[in-house]
Amino acid sequence: MARGNSPEIVVVGQIARDLVLSVDEMPAKGGAVPVRRRQEMLGGKGANQAVACAQLGAGTALIGVVGDDQAGDNVLRQARSDGIDVSGVVRRQDASTGLIVDVLEPDGGWRYLEDLPTDVLLTESDVEAARSLLEPAGSVLVQLQQPSAAALTAARLGKTGGARVVLDGAPAQDDRGAALLAAADVFRLDAKEAELFCGERIGGADDGLRVGRELLRSGPSLVAVDVAGKGNAVVWPDGQVFLPLIDTEVVDTTGAGDAFTAALTVALDHGAPPPQAARTAVAAAASSVERAGGRPDLTGDALRVQLDRLTAVAPT
């Protein structure tokens, strides 16, 4: 938990304008298809995670970069309306706010187009300027699509202040990556990241649990590994659990990982033991895939409904 009036959770990651275009089918090369529905929202992995944390009742701050443009004004206005502290967001002069275009098919399949210029990525000095947010935080959630130097600075500042450091994504396999893992308390990898990072195929529950236990040796005290199409392996020093995917209507899977990581972070920050935190994370991910775009909606009964479905297939 945070100290004083500081945010409980500080998310360090990407902020972007998210444009979701729903189509009946992807166009062939040289072809065109009509857009059935168009939605625009606050996006980027960091922003999506911050929104989820705030929706789950955690005081949340976001550290990232937007341009000094109208799109930047719009996404920050949305973040504030979501109850997120954006005092740590940098407005970069002469930069364009990042843009993500999510082209979505009826079966939940998607294609991503990203315009995330280097100047809307965090630098070490950007992170240092947000020291007053990071050091008193209860948890610092670092999204590893940011440059490794900035990510490591955030992790170290959080660690210095006594925060739980959560890494989302695969670090580079170099000295900086090793230092990130050493600073981490929680490490979460999606299926592609896990296979690339570990250099092997992760085909089922046993593989996910074994890989998670091996990664504990690198420093974290809890590791979560997504096993594609099957579920999530979560391991900690004196226990482990594999939770299957929840049978739910899939509209768009792009935000599932962000919702999982955010919910896991909030649950741990609020004192939940690892098995309970893992169940909350799986329920949040299932809720997120029922809507288009990466932005979650974890308000109301969304989590309870998914937790009930999870209990039906994986009793506590």
From TrEMBL:
Keyword terms: Kinase, Transferase
Organism from which the protein derives: Amycolatopsis marina
Family membership noted in the UniProt record: Belongs to the carbohydrate kinase PfkB family.
Gene Ontology biological process terms in this record: phosphate-containing compound metabolic process
Pfam families: PfkB
The protein, known as: Ribokinase
Organism domain of life: Bacteria
UniProt GO molecular function: kinase activity
InterPro entries: Carboh/pur_kinase_PfkB_CS, PfkB_dom, Ribo/fructo_kinase, Ribokinase-like
GO cellular component, one term: cytosol
Domain Carbohydrate kinase PfkB intervals: 8-296
